Each structure stands twice: as structure tokens, then as C-alpha cells.
Amino acid sequence: MILHVGPLADGPLDAAAQFHAEVLPRVRQTLAQGCSLTLVFAVADHAHRGWRLAAVQALARDLAPARINALEGDDPSAIDAAAIYLSSAAGVTGQLLRLDGIGAGAML
After folding, report:
1. The overall pTM is greater than 0.85
2. Where do the structural domains in the chain lie, given as residue ranges?
3. Cβ contacts of residue 49 below 8 Å, gap of 6+?
4. Spatial CA neighbour of 3 closest among 88, 71, 50
5. Nearby residues of 17 by Cβ (< 8 Å), 6 or more positions away
6. Please, which contacts does 90-95 make with residues 24 or more away whose CB atoms are closer than 8 Å?
7. pLDDT in tens, 15-35
8. pLDDT tens digit sequence for 30-75
9. How far apart, in Å, are the Cα atoms of 104 and each of 16, 70, 92, 101?
10. What is the pLDDT of residue 41?
11. Main-chain dihedrals φ then ψ at residue 96, nearest 5 degrees
12. Which candidate in 3, 33, 79, 101 could, as Cys together with 75 as Cys, close a disulfide (CB 3.0–4.6 Å)?
């Protein structure tokens, strides 16, 4: 399951507080049902990475064996591709992946 998060406040402290108050209850409910979940955050500056990663890692530990990961990006095709990968990567949980939508390019 994919859950698009936001919009959230601009500042990292306010955004984290808003996430925990408004989004976290839905996330816990979904994971408690045994569903895997991919959160999608809008791209933000580096100041948001810490709280986002900490939240995803704590949820992955607390609600295992349900899996949760998060993506940062705004390119729908990159989000879809990453979500497909994560749905088939049974051992991947607690990760925050930033997407650029450009891709790695052709293998040489």
C-alpha cells in the first residue's frame, strides 16, 4: 500500500509534529493489520531527513513483521518503480529512499 504524506509544515520540527499527530495513527493502523506500507514524502531539504528516517525505522522495529519504507520524490514514474521494487523486496524495511526520477541510465 502507498500513502502520500502531506502537505506538511515547512520547518522540520513542525513537520515532524504534524506527521506524528495526523499521519502516524493511520500508519500504525495499517501496519497493525499486517499490510506493508510505503510512505511518499515530498522532496524537502536535508533538515527533514533525520526525523523522517527515525520515524520509519522506529515503525519498522515496533510493528515487525509488517514492512514500512518511505520515498522522497515527486516523479510519479519513479515512485511507481520504487514501490514495485519495494513490494518484491521482502527483506527491505525501515528505509528512506530519495528518488530523482532520472534513473541510473543504461548499463555500459
Report:
1. yes
2. 2-24+33-98
3. 96
4. 71
5. 9
6. 92/67, 93/60, 93/64, 93/67, 93/68, 93/69, 94/56, 94/57, 94/59, 94/60, 94/61, 94/68, 94/69, 95/56, 95/69, 95/70
7. 999 999 999 999 998 888 888
8. 888 888 999 999 999 999 999 999 999 999 999 888 899 999 999 9
9. 31, 20, 20, 9
10. 96
11. -120, 115
12. 101
Which three cell numbers mark 53?
528516517
Task: Check residue 70 and give its pLDDT.
Answer: 97
Q: Are 66 and 34 in contact (CB under 8 A)?
A: yes
Cell of 1: 500500500
For the range 28-33, what are the long-range contacts, defined as Cβ-Cβ under 8 Å and sequence gap of 24 or more? 28/59, 28/63, 30/1, 30/3, 31/59, 31/63, 31/66, 31/68, 32/63, 32/66
